[in-house]
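Two proteins were folded this term; both appear here.
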Amino acid sequence: YSGLLRKGKTMLDLHDLSSGAAWLATRWWLSEILPLVQRDSGGTKAPPYIIVTGIGRSRPSWQTSNIQSFVMEMLRNEGIPVWVQEANRGRLQLDLS
């Protein structure tokens, strides 16, 4: 899964993952990567934290799960404010302030 952080540590790319794998990757990112980003920011305003899910156009026909909806629901269950970006419907933005 070397491509998960291909666009930087503040953007998690979940393309090509199942819902379960996407959630595990998200938990890893939240617990292992973002604390380092926040620590290294030195108290400056944090950049937006983005999860790239895509909008399902490249989803194989046999795959029925919607990764974006699943990850968003799981994050909300954890009490993390999250929304779909208006400018790019294939991305979720998190508020970790």
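Next, the second protein.
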Amino acid sequence: METDPGRHRAAAGGNRPVPFLCHGSGCLLGQGHAPAWNLNRRNNAVKHDTQGAMSMHDTNTTPELDSGTDDNLVKLTGPAHITESAPRREQSGWHSPTYNTSRMVTLDPNRVAANRCVCLESSAREMEYYRVLRTKVLHAAQQRGGNSIMITSALPDEGKTLTAINLAFTFAREFEQTALLVDCDLRRQKVQDYLGISGSKGLVDYLVDGCSIPDLMVWPGVEKLTMISGGRTVVDSSELLNSPRMRELVAEMKGRYENRYLFFDTPPVLCGADTLAFAPLVDHILFVVRAGQTPLQEINRALSMLPREKVIGLVMNRQDSELKNHNYYR
């Protein structure tokens, strides 16, 4: 793993250190480690110091889903059922909720595999990264209190949506815990596309048309996980995300089930006012950074715009594609 001996501490939004919660790069800096920001002066991109890190896998490569080999495919022949913790739950007398009112959908296995939604299959090679990420996020949330987590980034194409999906699916595997994934990127909705789901009502239908909450809920056949899509695309998304009806919905979802964690996929901070409008409604913020590509000044600028006390960590995400154009809503 490439490191720079010169350390540059990110100063955005105050002096409290923000921990790195890495996945894909094979290392993790714990809650107690101050994040050492390393500036590569040649490309002005973020690197991270690995001192005190826990090595898990080969740190030079990111595991890939190779569609040409059966071992790496996410195998779905219909609705997926995650039952990793079922024996322990049955022994304790705890049972998963039933989804009588949620609309059941079938995930598209080809779409899921192609988009690297790896956490439907326990044997997926990247699964362990998300288990570690889940543990760090869960500990941070339990220490601070609150069950709602917003996932965002500074710029487009940093992996925030994939992180939100895989993290929500991984949380659903946790013992005596349920997860709700909500697509709040109302101008560029990707959760449905990543999972191959179509034709469902979503958040906009609730905020604009008065659709009831049960009509929004989608069950993808994954035990202990429900979803709310964005619905149709809208222009006045920031106003909707900070509307009284949105505040009521978030409050209702946060308080309905004691052991439910909520995951909100929101737009990049520097692409508009949506995420800033929505941030006051959540308890925690997870910030996704594309390793080796995201300009440090853009990260600093984005973090300075967020409520710093809510940022529980930065996810270092490894991706291979070139950084796309910053024109997010074109």
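DSSP finds eleven helices and ten strands in the chain. The mean pLDDT is 71. These notes refer to the second protein only.
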